[in-house]
# Entry
Amino acid sequence: MLCMKCKKEIPDDFLYCNFCGKKQIIKPKPKYHKREHGTGTIHRDKRYKRLWVALAPASKYGKGRQYIGCYATRNEARQALDDFARSGKPDLYNATFASLSAAAGVQPENLQKIIGHASFSTTAEVYIHQDVATLIDEMRKINK
# Structure
């Protein structure tokens, strides 16, 4: 076997080169796991190089990536992204669903049970957002 550094002949079972002292074991590079298309992104934080950022997949039009979190290791970020993908109803979809359901006239008690909240106040304060057209119509009632 040839030494990795000085290229001199050394016995195969030697761990170090007798001539230059270079360790002869090559560590295999860790295999990079490419994420499937549409499952989110993991990258290093631009400001804090030691942290990993996990982002949820973009909408079908390529806009609106949701920030999941900042993690110490790539594996932690990957685990968080996998947990997000496995969750049946992430908050990203709950807010839209709750707002559209309330606008369609779904009873508040039923909406609370569908989303899975213990109290309706959580559903009403956090997830149900009035659309602009409804608010304008309510303001027009005052002017009459």
DSSP finds five helices and three strands in the chain.
